[in-house]
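Risk register update: the risk that structure generation would not scale has been downgraded. Supporting records follow, first protein first.
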Amino acid sequence: MTALNTLKPWHDPVGRWNRYWFAASNGLRLAICRIVVVAAQLLLFTPSLENQLERVRANDGFTEPQAIITAVCAIVGEENFRTVGVITAVYWLTVAVGVTTLIGLFTRASAFLFAAGTFLIVTHAYSYGEEHHPEALYSIFLMLLAFSPSGARLSVDAWIRRRRTDQPGGDGRRLRYPTALWPIKLTQVMFALIYMNAGMCKLHDGGLAWMNGYTLGHHLFADAVLHDLPVGIWLARFHGLCVVMSVGTIVLEVFFFVGLLLPRMLPVILLGCAGMHIGIYLTQNAPFFQFLVLYVIFIDFERRRRSNA
């Protein structure tokens, strides 16, 4: 036995790195994530066409053009892009390739065009002075689908491949893909970084005072009054509860990454974060539903299927 074969895992950082990002997968997990995330984008999260056109009609130009919009307008001209006809065409083309991504037809090309169209639609809406951020990670994951075998399973492409090969494993069930998990792993890491950034910013801007209960109570009351949310007004009255929620928010955000290192802790952390986002929506009218749908990437469907077999 050679010395190379006797190396322990912690003596082989490159190998551990590759095993983390490029572990072999049959593609089922990525395929399910593709279907769930794309379906939710099409049915729930794509801004309405009327909303897009209303912004065009109500404004003489962009007030705060996003980087993607600036780049597009530099190529085609703002006067040519910012028209009812172009925005309508972009919208319906995005919906069309979204459907082909959902069913897995020409999956890689469809996913790329769908992600690009989604970026364009979202940034167009945000180029008139109103900007949010839950869509960013969601749109990035859509783009990652284009650079992975997301259509290897549960897709029209897989069905066509099976018909051509005329073999039981022709749809990819018996194949192993070393690039089927890296989009999922990368998005999980980005989740951890986003949450940690949110928690660290709170501590940087407010220090420990952010967790004194009064800060959160103030924000709850102000947002609840602004959006007429009785739950927020009621909740802001309980200082002790505000302290608990403040501390819990910081702990969940800063230490979310622990769930990636200790998978047994992940369900508890995800449930806590889901409760946090639902509470934020009910008390402050800040929707993070894209995050909740994207939690599907943390479910190991392949392991669940093996355990049920």
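Supporting record for the second protein:
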Amino acid sequence: MDGGFAPRVAMPAENARHTDKSVPPKIACFQDALGNAVHTVSAGPVENQVILITGMGPIGLFAITTCKAMGAAKVIVTEVSSYRMEIARQLGADVLINPLKENALAKVLKAMPAGVDATLEMSGHPDSLKLAIDATRPGGRISLLGVYPESEVPINMDHVIFKGISIQGIVGRRLWETWDLMGTLLSSNSLNLEPVITHSLPYTEFQTGMELLKAGQAGKLVFTF
């Protein structure tokens, strides 16, 4: 009842999950968003896979380090913000592509001529959905977490069908498998999350934080109380 921004929140007791004390509060506070990344990454095979992630918002950035922690062979990312591209570089992205400055599909296929094993679509941009279908290999998967400005997006269904691509809608968590996996990754120190936390602000500067996000000049914001 009510959302996480409300002064008080009511929820089922079983939804209260223990966080290991080894996890710092500045990381523990964004486990919901991190869980979105963990769910999207783990919705199919990861180990030894080449994975394309479109959109380097905080969840896309979390997905990079999650892929690395789960044994991905290579991570390719797309992003139009040079600010967030630099964070992706710090997280270990192997190939970085700015679709505004270069042919994204050509660069993906140069790195992987047969196509990537999986695409994690985090941007909510129709062009990224087209890229996902064109860049994913036959038999690969596309996991969709991004939400689109217009819910009806045209795609080439023949490409999907004849390539045998699996398309998954990702709501953001499997209860409780996502939280269990995320807890294991956190407690084992497998995730490199520090580069994503770009700002720590007093909660009274909430509006400033929102403006930084809208301007693409922030990774993950943490508010202190």
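The domain at 23-194 is CATH 3.40.50.720 (Rossmann fold). On this basis the risk owner (M.S.) recommends closing the item.
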